[in-house]
Amino acid sequence: MTNFVRRFHGEVWYICTLRRFRWFEEKGMPMLTVTEFNAQPKVRMGRRELLAGLAAGTVFPFAAAGCTAENPELGRRQLMLVSDAQIAQLSDQTWQAARQRERVSNNRTLRAQADRVGGRIANASGMSQHPWEFVVFDSDEVNAWVLPNGKVGVYRGLMEVTRNDDQLATVIGHEAGHVAGRHAQERASQQMAAGLATGLAAVALETTDTQNAGAWAGVLGAGLTFGVLLPYSRRHELEADRLGVDYMARANYRPSESVTFWEGMMAQQSRGAPPAFLSTHPSDGARMNALNAHLRNRGYA
After folding, report:
1. Domains in the chain, please, with CATH?
2. From the candidates 102, 175, 239, 257, which is the catalytic residue?
3. Is 175 a catalytic residue?
């Protein structure tokens, strides 16, 4: 359980091993003053060791003040190296780029359904601080995604395989769960933590360079639109599942339909034609077991 201090690009970075990071979390002391942090046992690492640790996710950068934040929706602290303002700016840029790349559907029925279901889920989530918008893209692709600013892209192909409003609410509720879970911010922070190995740390958050648009779109959740595949982690998927079905229940949709929807997605995958949605939202038996357990615990089943 050791940590060290090094200087990169003129800034001091406080680095701790994953073991120390978890110890701080367990003790409820994730944020330390400079004096407190430097009082811990120190160790020096060579650049090769540092790069290996960042790439493997076993070494994290720890600024002396405020590198983690409590998320009451999740009941845990998260690594946060980017500000909400920076993420909002990136989200706005990605949304505009996505709308230029994709064809927006003129189908009034589908658009009305997306607005109706999306509006109820957004209200149930309590996240009124976001300018929610639900756009149907005219594509056969079975896919949907959300950006941290509440902009939701739903593809015609996905809406055509949902059997009712409840199943569409499953999708939008799950995406809203990613927003409440601040998963994009956490993933961006993790990518920046490993930035010396991945190159993302060298990308200024304010950049409008189209060369980096795909990379950041992947981090934010809309990567497939730009040809970038970056699946959510198992932890993020389970958290979004739990939050999503809670929003469904509050919005008077049937949470049990979430199981039917995800089982349908997995059935398509087993037939050798996996929906694009599963490439970024991986699902398996363990995830379904966890979802069913949550439904029972909440009394939704």
Report:
1. 1-66 (no CATH), 84-183+217-298 (3.30.2010.10)
2. 175
3. yes
